[in-house]
């Protein structure tokens, strides 16, 4: 497959340039998968195998969105449900007057956030990069709510305790107005588990992993796949998470729907292919840009979306002359996925480095855009 060869060539240059010790690249056309490991599993290590297990961090979000839409289709919940229907602890939360203001200086929320607000990351809480100091973000970090790097042990609380602690804090801004990254999906995961009457790992297994045969995916590394987990690095070759004592070897106290999963290139391609072949209506619904122009130009969106849109759990680009339409998302520990619906093509790049460099992202997107725009 010419496209796959182009991507592999691009990733080989990335590895030879020393950006990452190795990567697994995969392409699927709806019927077949092409997967190849390039380079090493760690500096000085062995050849990176195609079935290596990766921490996919925020590439968890598209799966969370898919599960949410399944529950909507089944009548378990509705997109316009206020979240306090399922999370009564969050009823009547107040809103800061100023993002960098004291926690006590608040006003009532104009309206209750909805399930759709969580899907669209418009809860009114998340990373606040536009201010030098944000007391409520610092309070969330101190409370163990997970406002730092995506490590399971960073959130030591059960889902119920996590929500109780979050309920003590005001929102950063009025719900439904701005796109603010990250925090909404942790809330959404707790809501989904309560609505479905089960824990989140079981819900994901029942709704996604088991039906699609994704045996290497979960909120902890499956026992049969532990010898395929590779280390994750940061700041060059500094270890972020090693294999023998990995944070992902035990079941998390708080399964994070925003970034807690591990997976393989094959499993993730199976999931994204299902969005176009098994349930194309759901995939189409996820890929619609639902942000306003003002929301796309907001501080958080400028950093994470770079002018593109956001649907349900995915970044979306409409395409145009010389630019193929696509949707997908990446993970902060070095993973990336995009699907090109007009061509029936999906591709993943799996590395383990926090954060992924622009060159790492371009190693996948540049050859895909070049080949598919012709």
TrEMBL record:
GO terms for molecular function: hydrolase activity. It comes from Kribbella lupini. Residues 17-358 form the Beta-lactamase-related domain. PANTHER family: BETA-LACTAMASE FAMILY PROTEIN (AFU_ORTHOLOGUE AFUA_5G07500), BETA-LACTAMASE-RELATED. This is Serine hydrolase. InterPro entries: Beta-lactam-related, Beta-lactam/transpept-like, Diverse_Enzym_Activities. Pfam families: Beta-lactamase (PF00144). Keywords: Hydrolase. It comes from the Bacteria. SUPFAM superfamilies: beta-lactamase/transpeptidase-like.
């Amino acid at each position: 497959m010419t496209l796959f060869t182009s991507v592999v060539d691009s990733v080989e240059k990335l590895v030879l340039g020393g950006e990452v010790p190795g990567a697994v690249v995969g392409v699927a056309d709806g019927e077949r998968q092409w997967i190849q490991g390039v380079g090493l599993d760690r500096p000085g290590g062995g050849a990176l195998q195609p079935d290596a297990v990766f921490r996919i961090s925020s590439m968890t979000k598209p799966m969370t969105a898919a599960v949410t839409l399944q529950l909507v289709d089944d009548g378990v919940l509705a997109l316009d449900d206020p979240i306090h229907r399922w999370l009564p602890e969050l009823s009547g939360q107040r809103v800061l007057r100023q993002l960098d203001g004291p926690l006590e200086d608040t006003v009532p929320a104009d309206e209750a956030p909805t399930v759709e607000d969580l899907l669209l990351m418009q809860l009114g809480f998340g990373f606040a990069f536009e201010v030098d100091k944000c007391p409520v973000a610092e309070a969330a970090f101190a409370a163990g709510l997970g406002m730092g790097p995506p490590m399971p042990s960073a959130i030591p609380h059960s889902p119920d305790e996590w929500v109780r602690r979050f309920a003590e804090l005001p929102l950063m801004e009025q719900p439904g107005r701005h796109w603010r990254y990250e925090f909404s999906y942790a809330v959404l995961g707790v809501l989904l588990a309560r609505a479905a009457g089960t824990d989140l790992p079981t819900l994901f297994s029942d709704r996604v992993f088991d039906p699609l045969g994704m045996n290497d995916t979960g909120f902890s590394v499956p026992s049969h796949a532990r010898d395929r987990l590779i280390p994750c690095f940061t700041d060059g070759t500094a270890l972020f998470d090693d294999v023998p004592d990995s944070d992902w070897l035990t079941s998390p106290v708080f399964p994070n729907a925003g970034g807690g999963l591990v997976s393989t290139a094959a499993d993730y391609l199976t999931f994204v292919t299902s969005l176009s072949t098994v349930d194309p209506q759901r995939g189409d619904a996820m890929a619609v840009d639902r942000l306003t122009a003002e929301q796309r130009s907001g501080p958080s969106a400028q950093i994470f979306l770079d002018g593109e849109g956001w649907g349900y759990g995915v970044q979306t680009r409409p395409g145009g002359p010389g630019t193929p339409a696509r949707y997908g998302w990446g993970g902060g520990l070095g993973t990336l996925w995009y699907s090109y619906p007009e061509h029936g093509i999906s591709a993943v790049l799996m590395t383990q480095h926090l954060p992924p460099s622009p060159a790492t992202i371009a190693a996948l997107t540049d050859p895909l855009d070049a080949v598919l725009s012709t």
